[in-house]
Design brief:
Length: 112
């Protein structure tokens, strides 16, 4: 339930933040800000970036795509992350897509 709520909130924030930049009209002129300049993964400490990268389909040079970002979020949750947030950081040519992840805390054990 908590994961679903976080996913819905993340998608809503992405939609609000990106809707004016991604034009559904294919005849519209594409600007540099609609492109991904880089993808960054932050917050992981147990799960290696090499484990995460192959499942992330957002790539530098691609247009920003909400369905692809949603798929990336779902993939990161499938790796067992407790929280996944996405932000855009503006750059000269395009945007950096930043996936902020929080790993689940190890279960607390009681000392005998």
């Amino acid at each position: 339930m908590k994961h679903s709520l976080v996913l819905v909130i993340a998608i809503c924030l992405l939609t609000l933040g990106c809707q004016h930049k991604i034009q559904p009209d294919l005849s519209s002129k594409v600007t540099g800000k609609e492109f991904i300049e880089a993808v960054d993964l932050r917050g992981n400490f147990k799960t290696t970036t090499e484990t995460m990268r192959p499942g992330i389909h957002s790539r530098a040079g691609d247009r920003i795509s909400l369905p692809v970002i949603k798929s990336d979020i779902e993939f990161l949750y499938s790796l067992g992350f407790e929280e996944v947030r996405v932000e855009e950081e503006p750059r000269r040519i395009g945007k950096i897509i930043v996936f902020h992840v929080r790993e689940k805390a190890p279960p607390q054990t009681l000392a005998p």
